[in-house]
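pipeline/complex-builder :: batch 7 item 3
reading input block
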Amino acid sequence: MYSRAYKTLISIPPLLWVCLFLLLPYALMFAHSFWLVRDGFLVHQWNLHNYRALFNNPLYFQVFLRTARIAASVTLCSLLLGYPLAYYLSFHAGPRKELLYQLVIVPLWVSYLVRGYAWKTILGSDGVLNGFLQYLHITHEPVSFFLYSPFAVVLMLTHIYTPFVFLPIYASLEHIPRPLLEASQDLGADRRATFLRIILPLSLPGLLAGATFAFVLSLGDFLAPLLVGGPSATMIASIVQSLFGAAYDWPLGAAISVCILLITVSLLFTTERLEKRWAFK
Amino acid sequence: MSAGGAISPEYASSGSALLEVRCVAKSFGVSQVLKNISLQIAAGEFLTLLGESGSGKTTLLRLIAGFEQPTSGEIWMSKERLDTLPPYKRRVNTVFQNYALFPHLNVRDNVAYGLRVKTTPKAEIAGRVEEALRMVKMSSFAGARPATLSGGQQQRIALARALINRPQLLLLDEPLSALDANLRKQMQSELKALQREIGIAFLFVTHDQDEAMALSDRIALLRNGALEQVASPREIYSRPATAYTAEFIGQTNLLRGEINDGVVRCSALQWKTSQAEGAALFSLRPEAIHLAAASLRLQDAVHFRGTIRQQIYGGASELLEIDCGGNQIVRARIPATGPLTGQYEFIFSAVDAIPVTESPSVHGPRTTDHEPR
């Protein structure tokens, strides 16, 4: 057994880390959201000005709604891609399972930025996709809405987050004891009924975890709108970024961040409770 | 089946059996797991597939349930081809080795599962679930999750979940192997009583010969994917067809000898016989050998003298290892007497020395048809 002093000693570095790089920044952000900027200078004067501005200006709410819509689309698309993929790998891939699993994981090793620029290259006016369509004479001039649209953002984020959705679903499918499926068939359930009554309910915790990943990560994304989104696909995090950057209004940016943080935390809290309720030993 | 005693094999194969396995073989890749199995199960019969691990007994069960396809051969059930149907269309239900209860459903929903997927009216489901739970004495656990139940309780739920569908044949894959010894004995007698009460045919897989003897109407002994012998427990014990059967079910002395001029000679032992001349093999159960006594009269008695090599006390009886000279050791089980040393005279009846073969004859195993109780 380790002594009390030893335990205290080894827990100091991680505690320090968490305090310095997590709790302190959050506290600073929280404090900033109640300060304000006057004549280009930060004034440490406690007030609710930022939150009032946030709720009085419908622009912020509209952007937030768009962000939520994009995040929901990304979640839905990655579920529609990730679940069947996980299902196929877990139940029907046979000996190719390991190889296919690695192929799904490989994109996670490629930098986010590289993948973003790849989509820019593919979707742009003189990009690969337009070139291909014109070569086939399907279109005669470049299609412009591929790039710089909410569509492009959803496409790119779906591409990036599908592996994140795939992984927890795959894990939960792999954990289903196979005799349960035989028992279901034995009791008269065909493939469809077995899926709906056994496989789907038992994979719900994984599905929920994957959906939460995709939604929360998309909600806070600012690189995708920056790279492929354009003005029509501005997301809430892009606004925060510009407020902390060029606009130099840290207090308002902090207020938005606090709101997003609250939404995200309550979302995580809810899904974690649901996951626990749906988890079966 | 007719109630008038044993029926002829020809009649049985004409379709009166509930389930008929016809020349079924199964291979996984290059390994042949089942070789040319033919077997019939009568309605209401308790048939046990007995064998060591790897003998193919579970594979045969899975072929009947529909989880595997036979490589060749056919399976028929009540004049209907069974092996071409998917598992969910077969009127057969299975009790799985580790029960395979659905962890996300409570006991009631587990039991109701088979009825729900067949869209049985709600009112009927409730009644039948209650009845099934009462049958296995688990009514008070209807709302419990499987994970909160003990092994024996899960076993009962698995049984109720299968029986509620009123199958014609229930398949049980080593259902008692996960239970401890006492519970196992109790479940054995309950299982047997339940089977008598509902009159459904049971096909029971086990590697435990005592369990097979205690429960079955007939035992089908499998060895390396082939049927060694199919017979009632009494017959398979008292008249084993092969040396393997004799040794697998109970203990035995295998006596190897020669028959010349109507006399069997197995080293120190010899007795008269009407069997054909030549090499012969006999199974003599230890309990057929007695300490000679003036009061003991046996038919065709064979006497021999032997030295006690070892005496193993076993409560009501004891096992003697007897050296009868010429390097021949036989084992005898006699009523507990007290310590024995030195030489004694022993006696057994030549009738109890059962001629056995090394392996089943080329015409297939010795099979006895089911006799109605």
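note: DSSP finds nine helices and 21 strands in chain B.
queue -> next item
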